[in-house]
Design goal:
Strand content: 5-15%
Largest sheet: 4 strands, mixed
Number of helices: 11
CATH superfamily: P-loop containing nucleotide triphosphate hydrolases
CATH architecture: 3-Layer(aba) Sandwich
Distance between the termini: 27 Å
CATH class: Alpha Beta
Number of strands: 4
Length: 210
Amino acid sequence: MLISDSHKFIFVRVRKTASSSMSSQLQPYVLPRPESPWSRFASRAHIEKDYHQYRFRAHAEISTAQRLFPPEQFDRYFKFAVVRNPWDRLVSEYKYILKTKSHGRHRKVKKLGSFERFVDMQIPRRDAYQLNQLCGRDGEYLMDFVGRLESLDEDWKNICGHIGIPYVELPRKNVSAHRPYSDYYTPALRGRVAQHWAPEIERFAYTFDD
């Protein structure tokens, strides 16, 4: 998560949605991340109450900012994110973890032996669902704008205009090379994703063939 007081925005970084590329362009405007051992401990233990001193996880949920911000200030700040077709995103994350030996789940995912088993592993994981990052403590949807990776260029221009920064074409970072995501799905696996990811598929109007 990135926060800017000067430009009054909160950027929720969703995995595998070009969040690293966007973050690199937003860095000049955001609060520095506290690096002291105390800030790390106090943040993990939920002792720290000042969002300026809180060490946000890279992919923190918007509910964390909601908890730390004064309510009227939280309402004023522009809260945005980018999402991705869930079928496509699962394939991208699977391939990224497999190729990244330093990833915390690399060995575990490699031992699974198949993409289908990876999907089964993701189903019970809270952070496997984009929508969980974008809702508050009571389940209320809190975002002011959510772009789509599939229309990133246009949506990034809109974001830059809204927060008042110059538009710069996004660099490509952490790109996972793989076959078309549809190749990884059997009809049954496609339906399993449709069932479990239904809330975000419906909210963001995705279909398997997007």
